Amino acid sequence: MINGLIGKKMGMTQLFAPDGTVTPVTVIQAGPCPVVQVKTAANDGYEAVQVGFDELTKKKLPRAIKERFSKLNVPAQRVLKEFRPLEAGKLPAVGTVLNVKVFEKAKQVRVTGTSKGKGFQGVVRRHGFGGGGRTHGSNFHRAPGAVGCRTTPGEVHKGKRMAGHMGHRQVTARNLVVVKVDPDKNLLYVRGAVPGPINGFVTVLLG
Questions:
Q1: In whole angstroms, what is the distance from residue 38 CA to residue 89 CA?
Q2: How far apart are CA 157 and CA 33, in angstroms?
Q3: Could you give the CA distance from residue 7 to residue 76 in angstroms, rounded to a whole number?
């Protein structure tokens, strides 16, 4: 068995306990993920399993990718990622399909995804700057203010908080409690929010 799977964020909903307690959960479609490559310590220097997710139609594939997957007798996959085995030496064979059952005994998981892109934003929205006065003839409202220095060193320091592209970066949500696992539909329900938009690809890892 491996330590994670590739999934897709389906959205958020609520689960109700018998006592009426409401739990906000994010629904993740974790799998099916076929194994497309097995790496061993003898050949690659480490043990890992490369799995795929989200089957592609053959019309959209370059010839090289078609030939690779046809040799493996595995449908072409949109996303490929490597995962480590939980026990050394116990690696699934190529073609083995892994599903959400990997998380049946898990209590917590960590989910990594790409956050929503916000485009080019100013310092007030991007960094939470307070801005200037709105009245009394002020012309300083949402500007960043001075960004440079005097003659020495005569430059803008690296890492200066300025306007720029916001969002669309890798974010990891840790210690998400597994509330429910649905093996029939390959659905994983975790408490709380998960980074990324609906239908965005995520990586779910144990622990």
A1: 11
A2: 45
A3: 16
> Could you tell me the two tokens for 165?
């592209």
Q: Could you read off the pLDDT of 175-192 as tens digits, one per residue?
A: 999 999 999 999 999 999
On whether the CB atoms of residues 36 and 75 are closer than 8 A, the answer is no
How far from 16 is each of 20, 21, 157, 181, CA to CA, in Å? Answer: 6, 6, 51, 15
Question: Could you give the CA distance from residue 128 to residue 165 in angstroms, rounded to a whole number?
Answer: 14
Q: DSSP strand E in the chain: where?
A: 4-16, 22-30, 33-39, 48-55, 77-83, 97-98, 108-114, 117-121, 164-167, 170-182, 187-191, 201-206
CA 26 to CA 28: how far, in whole Å?
A: 6
User: Residues in the chain, how many?
Assistant: 207
What is the Cα–Cα distance from 126 to 124, expressed in whole angstroms? 6
Q: For residue range 83-103, list pLDDT tens digits in order.
A: 998 888 788 889 899 999 999
Share of the chain above pLDDT 70, in %: 100
Tell me, yes or no, if the pTM score tops 0.90: no
The token duo for 4 is 């994670």
Query: How many angstroms separate the CA atoms of 32 and 8, rounded?
Result: 11
91-122 residues labelled b (16+ CB within 10 A) or e (exposed): bbeeeeebbbebbeebeebbbbbbeeeeeeeb
Query: Smallest Cα–Cα separation from 84: which of 40, 33, 28, 29?
Result: 40
